[in-house]
Amino acid sequence: MNTYGSIFIETFFGFFALLIISKVLGKTQISQLTAFDFISALIFGELVGNAIYDDKVGIKQIAFAVFLWGALLYVIEIFTQKFKATRSIFEGRPAIVIHQGKLQREVMKKNKLDINQLLTLLRAKNAFSIKEVEYAVLETDGTVSVLKKTFDQSPTRQDFNLLAKNVTLGFTLINDGQVIKDNLHEINKDEAWLKNELKKQKINAIEDVFYAEYKEGEALFAQTY
Questions:
Q1: Which residues form the YetF C-terminal domain (predicted)?
Q2: Is the CA virtual torsion 191, 192, 193, 195 positive or negative?
């Protein structure tokens, strides 16, 4: 059999082998994959991809690699279902990164999540300011679930009309002890004003501030370490 015929057969076999394995394992959608699932999918694809273009590897070897890897994943799936304690090892645990409106710095640090990443995730949930958020949970798939504060979660019609007329974005002025000068310039303020606002909250040094945010018409939101 020529090279193209061999590649055709191996590709055809690899496609349906992966399809069968994925159906048996009952994998979630791509957007819901955990880190372990993602790595497993990459290795799964590499096993088949490399085998197809290796002249020394035939269908038997591809089948052995695919079904062995699939069997290992299947065992882990069953194992995590029967023994709950193992779920955190393979699937991870949700982590509360904002609790009662306060950033949980140690939790963020443990999960390798910085302010900019968190703000991006919050904006995807239509939360454009940390001040709007009562609770935020970092899920095992890397997304964030958000519970807004009562006023923001279910405003009355009058509140909604008021918000629609006065929509303002939150500007990050301090991130991990560092002043964001571009944002400070954007709101036409200087560091002297910023320091004065911090002093009103009995904060003497910018370096002591983990995060500070400004919204027009509202008091400066600042949280220390």
A1: 81-215
A2: positive
Residue 156, CA atoms < 13 Å, CB-side half-sphere: 2
Q: Are 195 and 206 in contact (CB under 8 A)?
A: yes
Q: Provide the whole-model pTM.
A: 0.56
Query: How many whole angstroms separate alpha carbon 48 and alpha carbon 14?
Result: 6
Residue 149 and residue 132 in contact, taking contact as beta carbons nearer than 8 Å: yes
Show the 3-state SS of the chain.
CCHHHHHHHHHHHHHHHHHHHHHHHCCCCHHHCCHHHHHHHHHHHHHHHHHHCCCCCCHHHHHHHHHHHHHHHHHHHHHHHHCHHHHHHHCCCCEEEEECCEECHHHHHHCCCCHHHHHHHHHCCCCCCHHHEEEEEECCCCCEEEEECHHHHCCCHHHHHHHHHCCCCCEEEEECCEECHHHHHHCCCCHHHHHHHHHHCCCCCHHHEEEEEECCCCCCEEEEC
In Å, the largest CA–CA distance within the chain is 81
Tell me if 102 sits within 8 A of 118, measured CB to CB.
no
